[in-house]
Design a protein that fits this description.
homodimer, 124 residues, mainly beta, Jelly Rolls, 5-stranded antiparallel β-sheet
């Protein structure tokens, strides 16, 4: 068991519209589960992308969110289930920051663009 | 992609001290990732248990929490990394409800007591 203090895991200097803090999984014996804490600024977005693993997005606040070209209204605790290689893009169409918890069935998480091109993560 | 509305997934009538709402994973194409939304009342606790998969506990509010016989002070966003078959028990030693998000690298999640005895979940 490892207790990770959120304030001791600074967000990498990346992704200005959607900073990500990953759980430091592999160095603590975690090989098939990683969790990201992510915040998307108003108007901010992730690029369209996919992962060769499953993902669940847990929305932390009431907010509108665009996914798959459709805007939906989310409430705190709502989840989005993303099967393996489901291409997705998160767009915060609201007026406040959109906080998300995103677990993945892979560690370390790999990101690919829709055409399969690997997308680098700044902490890898 | 499936959007699960939190208010449409009632908590099963179980576990009075620590109600759990699981993501309905397998019926939506999720086979290696399940996420529980859990709340532990003050003084409430889970039994000591383990899973044959990895788990991350994401604490949603500032609270004291007893794990592995040691009380730690958690802040919102802190995480606990639990490798496969790590026996654990969560005890809310605080004065308010303790809300947790708990992803697992298994779907559906199975629970075992420390000696390996399967423990039934009310929705299985």
């Amino acid at each position: 068991m490892t207790h990770i203090h959120s304030h001791s895991t600074p967000s990498p200097a990346c992704c200005p519209a959607s900073p990500i803090r990953p759980s430091p999984a592999p160095q603590h014996g975690m090989h098939s589960l990683e969790v990201w804490s992510q915040s998307i600024e108003p108007g901010g977005a992730t690029p369209p992308h996919r992962h060769d693993c499953e993902e669940v997005v847990v929305v932390q606040a009431k907010a509108p969110l665009m996914m798959h070209g459709t805007e939906s209204r989310f409430r705190s605790g709502d989840t989005v289930l993303l099967p393996r290689n489901d291409v997705h893009q998160l767009i915060n169409t609201g007026s406040g920051p959109l906080r998300l918890i995103a677990p993945f069935s892979m560690a370390p998480v790999q990101v690919e663009l829709p055409d399969g091109t690997p997308s680098a993560l700044p902490w890898q």
